[in-house]
Amino acid sequence: MAGDRLLYAGQDAAACQTLLTALGTHFTHVPLGESVNRHAEVLRDDFINLDKHLDQPVEDRLWQASDMAERNPFTSTLFQDACLYLACEEVLDVPFGRLLVVVENPSLGQALFQLAKRKGWRSSWRTGSTLCDAFPWLIRFKKRWTCLREALRCRLDLLKDLRRRKAVLARLGISRPKAGPQAFDTLLTVWAVTDTFPASRPKTHDPYWGELPEYLAREGQRVLSLATPAAWVEPFEDIAASIAASPEAVVLPEQCQSLPRAAWDALRTLFWTAKLRTPVILAGKDLTQLIRDGVWHERAKSRQMVALGYERVGPALKAWGMVPRQALHLYENQPWEKCLRRGFRDALPQTSLAACQHVPFSRLYLSFIPSRRELDAGLTPHRLIVPGEFWREVYLQAGYAPDQIVVAPSLRFSYLFSSACSGSHEFAGASKVNIVPQTPDSPPQGGMVPPAQSESRKSGAMPLTMLVAGGMDPMELRELLLARLIPASRVLLGLDVLLKFHPKMEPSAVAAILADLKQVPGFGFTLTTHAIADLLPQVDAVLYTSSGVCYEALAHGKHALYVGSDMRLDINKLDWFPDLHRKTRSPQELSRAIEEILNESPEAAHTRKAQAAELIIRLFACSNTSSLHVFLGNSKCDNNLTNLAEWTTKSFGN
Fold it and tell me: What is the pLDDT of residue 626?
């Protein structure tokens, strides 16, 4: 029937496309992405301060270990569901024909069903279960039973895995850290793989900490590493063996955690519930039902248990006589970080707690910003080390005390400062790599470029090379490629596309996306595994979603094009700076953005690159020896901003 509409309140672009294909032309899809993200900005402050609705202390251990307290959009759908609810409400306010609403979360579906009835819609509910369709109140009990069953399974799996890991450590002779009782200057948290701790030489570099290990050693610092094995990348057995063979002082979370205490954590998180003041009103809307649903989702996951394990690190180090002067961890304000700090505060109050923000983040990545109650309760680090003056301003505005924040060199992105300062807007450290087109069956180093596309490139039909930088979420990348770039490329003949998958994306997800792309006639691309720094000098623009490669693109003077979603939150790490990137949400918008890039004048390009270089200086501080001292754990935080300002003036002029 003409006028019938479809709302897809979920995050799976492939499922949405399958649904649209099945419905044919009977329903018109109403994209919710723009509305969802508009409501996200409205709800942002309320969600940051969600704990004001707690009827219990904000410092409660189990609350702080939960995804609800973290408010991370990648680990909990609660924020997304609340925004979807408000977006769907807008559509329900304008009756027009029939409306089909498809949801992934049954609790969100029930909330929308009740909302539709209150607004006078003639509504029905279909779940695929005759019994639940007849008695909708059974849906809640069915979901809770499903959550409890999954909660038991994941906790048992985690306990079995911990027992297996402790057996591996016992077999290797490292049930306890090899370093004996002694005082350390710094406890440094790292993510460990097999080459993190070399057996033949001291550790000098880390993917997240850059050259800090070498600097600390040069300054005579005694460093103890808290190594979390990245067992999703390499087998735990291999990682543990590499640590056993290393001369470094290393402690593993598994060494600090006993099986009885882990079992106790499993039991208490299974029956834990957040005590809420009701109703929970956010942005003027009663979202109590969705918030309570979020509490049940906590049970179906084991992340609370994992986080609570880090609370044992401080007491274990105290028992072993391995007392660090400062504990330095990477900062995203995740549950494990909060529990690590809590354990040190309880067992080793003399240890200074410092955290380092190692990556830029989106405005909607809410976990980075503590709530007002968390700030008042003193749950933040003693010192927060940020990579640039801009981030200092962000945290000051969020409520951090000025003496808590120190600007230090961006260890992970130190080369970006040099790139922006070079004047030519080229990264001198990048090497020109040979990207050779290959056949569809070739390994992912060259790529798949059809002859027709190569010829159009030679004829000058589209003098533009685009780098597609995928994030870790395969559904996000699928939507970018299949629903955005491919439709846009059909009107932009000759566009050269370099495709780089995130190195930590599951191989099965990579294979599935490549299989989908092979089914698209006429779309050519070059599949590459080269480093981003090597690829950027050869491209004109970067197409990205939640990846931080957008900042690297700005530092190289390249165009950054963000691709928004029809159905999910835009975790755009450049959303702080709307004037320095192009945001697109449809193939038409993407096509227009590419045309604007092609028509950019030399004067406009020079201005854009100069603005980007100026921004990079505020985002990523200069790396020099005098500014690295803040990582030594000195009691006085000297930001060395005067020297940085003098250096900037000398390099760029006024």
Answer: 59
What is the spatial distance between Cα 236 and Cα 93, in angstroms, rounded to a whole number?
53
What whole-number distance in Å separates Cα of residue 187 and Cα of residue 225?
6
Residue 307: C-alpha distances to residues 142, 579, 642 (Å): 28, 39, 40
DSSP structure string for 210-273: BTHHHHHHHTT--EEEEEEE-TTTS-HHHHHHHHHH--S-EE-HHHH--HHHHHHHHHHHHH--
What gap in Å lies between CA 13 and CA 480, rounded to an integer? Answer: 9
Residue pair 235/29 in contact (Cβ under 8 Å)? The answer is no
- Residues 526 and 438: beta-carbon distance below 8 Å: no
Query: Which tokens hold the place of 147?
Result: 């959550």
Yes or no: say if 105 and 81 are a contact pair by the CB < 8 Å rule. yes
Structure-token pair, residue 618: 């505020």
Judge whether 249 and 184 are in contact, CB under 8 Å: yes
Q: Which long-range contacts (CB under 8 A, 24 or more apart) does 112-116 make?
A: 112/9, 112/85, 112/88, 115/85, 115/88, 115/89, 116/92
How far apart are alpha carbons 601 and 612 in whole angstroms?
A: 17
Tell me if 186 sits within 8 A of 344, measured CB to CB: no
The residue among 531, 534, 554 whose CA lies nearest residue 544 is: 554
Q: Find all residues with CB under 8 Å of 72, minimum gap 6, and list them.
A: 332, 334, 365, 366, 367
- Asked if residues 475 and 442 have their Cβ atoms less than 8 Å apart, the reply is no
Backbone angles phi, psi at 517, to 5 degrees: -65, -35
Sheet holding 496-500, edge to edge: 526-527, 496-500, 465-469, 541-544, 559-563, 582-584
Q: What does the H/E/C string look like for 43-64?
A: HHHHHHCHHHHECCCCCCHHHH
Burial of 570 (0-12, 13-18, 19+ CB in 10 A): buried
CB 401 within 8 A of CB 614: no
Strand duo 383-386 + 496-500: pairing: unpaired
User: pLDDT-based confidence at 427, cuts 50/70/90?
Assistant: very low
Q: Whole-angstrom Cα distance, residue 386 to residue 188?
A: 16
pLDDT tens digits for range 18-44: 888 888 777 888 889 999 999 999 999
CA distance 86 to 474: 26
Q: Where are the beta strands (DSSP E) in 419-513?
A: 437-438, 447-448, 465-469, 496-500
**Contact at 8 Å (CB) between 589 and 582?**
no
Encode pLDDT of 376-423 as tens digits: 999 999 999 999 899 999 999 999 999 999 998 888 877 665 554 544
Tokens of 548: 């931080």
Q: Three-state SS for 167? A: helix
First to last CA, the chain: 65
Structure-block tokens of residue 349:
């109050």
Q: Please, which residues bridge with residue 330 across strands?
A: 356
| Chain mean pLDDT for the chain | 85
Residue with tokens 């698209």: 520
pTM over 0.90: no
Question: Rounded to whole angstroms, how far apart are CA atoms 389 and 50?
Answer: 28
Candidates 389, 263, 381; CA nearest to 328 is 381
Q: Does residue 327 carry a pLDDT above 90?
A: yes
Q: How far apart are CA 40 and CA 6, in angstroms?
A: 22
